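> forwarded from #structure-qc
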């Protein structure tokens, strides 16, 4: 598939989608507390997406059953919301959500600590989020695709964290997944040249331990092989002549 370059009108539509998605995340955030189930959060997301006139991007995608991915502790991505999964103090929870508004997709994820996480895990959240911000700064016309992943990898590996290889970011637009793939690792100065009008979902998935992951028998939930906790932050970012524009801010 070729890379779909967006016009400024399309980027504006994607920004509307992205702002709606941020409202969904903001509606969920106060409910990410001990005692809440991940299905409680799913219900809040579904109601908010409907209120905003959007459509849940994940639901039905290759048969995925929910609007959110809710991944607790050693779960890396694609955890399925459930009444039986109740948050406890010291847990971490990654919430990933995508919406479609007027045909345009946006995709964003955050990881929260419930109560107080252990210091090393708190550090994992801070470093993963900081690596995403530094990666966003690489989204400049004339830069290279793998500058993005190299930046994530340098920052996270310097702290001794494991960069997940089996899942990557992606182009996004009228589909959730467009070319190019956007790995969270790579060699600086390599990869295709970044152009104005590219829109990328950048999503570091970083483990407190080793990078390896496996998928549980439910066919979706990816967990760390070593049982270490994992963090995930994601933003949808447009590359413009004026620099990176985070559409999901
Ligand atoms: N942010 C994830 C991605 O880009 C979310 C997909 S979840 C799925 O792949 F359930 F829809 F697959
Ligand atoms: Co994504």
């Amino acid at each position: 598939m070729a890379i779909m370059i967006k016009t400024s009108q399309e980027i504006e539509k994607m920004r509307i989608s992205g702002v709606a998605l941020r409202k969904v995340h903001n509606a969920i955030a106060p409910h990410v507390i001990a005692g809440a189930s991940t299905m409680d959060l799913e219900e809040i997301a579904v109601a908010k997406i409907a209120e905003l006139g959007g459509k849940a991007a994940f639901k039905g995608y290759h048969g995925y059953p929910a609007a959110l991915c809710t991944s607790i502790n050693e779960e890396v991505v694609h955890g399925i919301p459930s009444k039986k999964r109740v948050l406890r103090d010291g847990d971490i929870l990654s919430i990933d959500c995508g919406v479609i508004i007027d045909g345009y997709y946006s995709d964003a994820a955050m990881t929260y600590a419930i109560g107080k996480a252990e210091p090393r895990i708190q550090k994992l959240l801070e470093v993963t989020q900081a690596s995403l911000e530094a990666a966003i700064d690489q989204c400049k016309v004339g830069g290279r695709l793998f500058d993005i992943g190299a930046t994530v990898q340098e920052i996270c590996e310097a702290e001794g964290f494991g960069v997940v290889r089996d899942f990557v970011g992606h182009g996004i637009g009228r589909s959730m997944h467009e070319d190019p793939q956007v790995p969270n690792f790579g060699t600086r100065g390599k990869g295709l040249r970044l152009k104005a009008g590219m829109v990328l979902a950048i999503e570091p998935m970083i483990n407190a331990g080793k990078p390896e992951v496996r998928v549980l028998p439910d066919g979706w939930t990816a967990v760390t092989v070593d049982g270490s906790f994992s963090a995930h932050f994601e933003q949808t970012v447009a590359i413009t002549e004026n620099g990176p524009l985070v559409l999901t801010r």
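QC bot note: The chain has a mean pLDDT of 98. The chain is about 25% helix and 25% strand.
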